[in-house]
């Protein structure tokens, strides 16, 4: 994951999820738009899950939603307001996926 982050973002450290939007119009299947690709580091997700005392599946759900939101144009790094918007949307989607309105395990 560190190598991928270095190669594509010029950031020399590991991360938990990377999103690669599909911008090439030629890659669109008629009637279907491919958002892009996601890479989730299982090692990092496992460590984060253990630190937060949640399951690996819960952490992967969080990271999957996070990555998909990036593919849809959300960006928590642009401002505090954008971070709040993305966090709110993440919790909304996770509560549906996990069927858990409480989200007491949310990181």
Please give a structural write-up:
The chain is mainly α. It has a single domain (2-97), classed as Collagenase (Catalytic Domain), CATH 3.40.390. The chain has four helices and two strands. The chain has helices spanning 2-9, 42-52, 56-71, 80-97, and strands spanning 17-21, 36-40. Strands 1-2 form a two-stranded antiparallel sheet. α2 (42-52) packs across α3 (56-71) and α3 (56-71) packs across α4. The two termini are 21 Å apart. The mean pLDDT is 87.
CATH topology group? Collagenase (Catalytic Domain)
Query: What is the CATH H-level superfamily?
Result: Metalloproteases ("zincins"), catalytic domain
Strand content: 5-15%
- Count of the separate structural domains: 1
Molecular shape: globular
Query: What structural class do the secondary elements suggest?
Result: mainly alpha
Oligomeric form? single chain
Q: What spatial order of strands do you see in the largest sheet?
A: 1-2
Which class in CATH terms? Answer: Alpha Beta
Task: Examine the secondary-structure arrangement and name the CATH architecture.
Answer: 3-Layer(aba) Sandwich
Order of helices and strands: HEEHHH
**Uncertain residue segments:** none
Let me know the average pLDDT.
87
Relative helix content: 40-55%
Distance between the termini: 21 Å
